[in-house]
Specification:
- The chain contains 15 helices and 4 strands.
- A hairpin with a 2-residue loop joins β2 and β3.
- The chain has a single domain, classed as ABC transporter involved in vitamin B12 uptake, BtuC (Orthogonal Bundle), CATH 1.10.3470.
- α4 runs parallel beside α9 and α6 runs antiparallel to α12.
- It is mainly α.
- The strands form 2 sheets. A two-stranded antiparallel sheet has the order 1-4.
- Keywords: Cell membrane, Membrane, Transmembrane, Transmembrane helix.
């Protein structure tokens, strides 16, 4: 085979891969179209500073989307991640006020996030309560506790080392939130694509009965997925607290909707068994670009929500097709 023939084969193979990806993930076309629109019509949108700002803003959703991907691939849902992030931010503020070492307090909060996920998973698998109801109840419990303990007031964080570590610092030219996102995405990708646990997650979501008869401990897989989701929500809560230098009991309210939308836009099926981490991250970035672009265009908040919701519905509908 000549060099020209080899190059032609490689080009055909690349084009075939692109076409297959676009057929399987039609939302990527919407992503590209929306991005192109903002580059053309939004002032100063196509700049490195804008890209960095979008990635920092979407770090929270991207991190929680990684954990949510595991849960949804298992055929479940976790509505408690937004309130869990608020609760985590409040708890870290209280721990730092109590002079718990900066190196220890975040680890305690991550462990607490795992515990929240464990409770969700046990209620879903052992009591057979639908995850929608369990996590909706957990959302209400955590929100109520956070508001009650703080008397609805933010808890200030005066530990500069904590804020620098998680939000303010930059490493090799990249802000800390982007590094945290990269670390969680790599961990999630490895667990889902390169381990036995990941293959069992797909099996449980694809056919629960078949997975159970093949010897997979399906309850354990689901519980672990919920725990991972709780841990990523707790980390997002730490980032929220570092960004605002306070533990706010309602700061993460509503984030669960953006997280679920990001995962579904990224190609994960609400019925389980299908999905991946890169798609979820792309979905989170898409939501960030959409929100940031509409803001730059100067549209009112109400109009932004209408347009954002319509595009998300269209993207999800295309994925269902």
């Amino acid at each position: 085979m000549t060099v020209q023939q080899s190059s032609a084969v490689e080009r055909d193979s690349a084009w075939t891969t692109i076409r297959r990806t676009l057929v399987q993930r039609p939302t990527y076309l919407i992503f590209a179209a929306v991005t192109a629109f903002f580059i053309i019509f939004a002032p100063n949108f196509a700049t490195l500073s804008t890209a960095g700002a979008i990635l920092r803003v979407t770090a929270l959703v991207s991190i929680m989307a990684v954990g949510m991907t595991f849960v949804i691939i298992c055929g479940e849902i976790d509505l408690s991640v937004g309130s869990a992030s608020s609760w985590s931010g409040m708890v870290i503020a209280l721990l730092l006020q109590a002079n718990v070492p900066t190196a220890v307090a975040p680890l305690l909060v991550i462990a607490m996030g795992a515990l929240i996920g464990l409770v969700n998973g046990l209620l879903v698998t052992k009591l057979r309560i639908p995850s929608f109801l369990v996590t909706l109840g957990m959302l209400s419990i955590l929100s109520g506790l956070a508001l009650t303990i703080t008397n609805t007031e933010p808890v200030p964080i005066v530990d500069d080392a904590f804020s620098d570590l998680l939000w303010n610092a930059s490493y090799i030219g990249l802000p800390a939130p982007i590094w945290w996102t990269i670390v969680i995405v790599l961990i999630g990708y490895y667990l889902l694509q390169m381990t036995v646990f990941g293959r069992r997650v797909y099996a449980v979501g694809g056919n629960l009965v078949a997975a159970r008869f093949s010897g997979i401990k399906t309850d354990r897989i689901k519980i672990t997925a919920f725990m991972f989701s709780g841990m990523t929500a707790a980390l997002a809560g730490l980032l929220l607290a570092a960004r605002s230098t306070a533990g706010n009991p309602s700061l993460g309210s509503g984030l669960e909707l953006d997280v679920i939308a990001a995962v579904i836009i990224g190609g994960t099926s609400l019925f389980g068994g299908v999905g991946d981490i890169p798609g979820s991250v792309i979905g989170a970035i898409f939501i960030g670009i959409l929100g940031f672009g509409l803001l730059v265009l100067g549209l009112s908040t109400s109009i932004q929500e209408v347009i954002k919701g319509g595009i998300i519905i269209l993207a999800v509908a295309l994925n269902r097709r």
